[in-house]
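[job 4471] stage=fold_predict status=RUNNING
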Amino acid sequence: MVSRKRDRAEMESSEPTAKPSMLTRLRDMWEFSNLMQYIFIFGKAVKIDEELTIEDLENECIKTGPSEKLAEIGLALLKNVSSHKGLTPDLFDEYTRRQYVAKAPERNPFGTEETPNKFADFEVFTKIRILSQLSRWTLINADRLREKIPEAKDIDQTEWRVEEIGYDEEGRLYYVLDDNRLYRRTDPPPPKPPAPKPKANSKRGRAAARASKRRKTVDTGEGTND
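[job 4471] inference complete, writing structure tokens
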């Protein structure tokens, strides 16, 4: 039996791919960087701890057990989205669910049962998506948020945007956010166009019409002796 040596590319392709760590997966979430950038700009206005850093947020996400800090951020954001007065940690799940039902029912993670799913029980990736979504909902009423930032009253809200610093040969955009980290934006591939319908006078179109007619005949029971 003749043996042969495998080249380096073949060996590397046969090696199992290491599963990315939780921290790597967090950093790959656009919602994670989006949430941190929001806190940098608007944290003081919505009463989120000003001393919170990107490293602090990462540590809260990867720690074992529930994070009180993530729950505090959620409640602070909800108070700037919901019109309900007197929100408390005990009301967070129900009133955050109400926001999802009203604004994004197809993405509601809290369920539709009488008792909502608990934020504390979600995996950390779901928690970050919820917090990021709440932060974006606070911007629906930009004037309300601007009133809480005296130095921003005369600033157009478009100035809150972060512009890209460049792009690569594949058209992917690069940003440096206020955490002094470099981010690359990779858009998902465009959806495939729907298959064109056959023209009525084409061979395929006539075949499809005959097949449709046969199905209708069977469905209506025509031609039976019952």
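[job 4471] summary: The beta strands are 166-167, 173-176, 182-185.
[job 4471] exit 0
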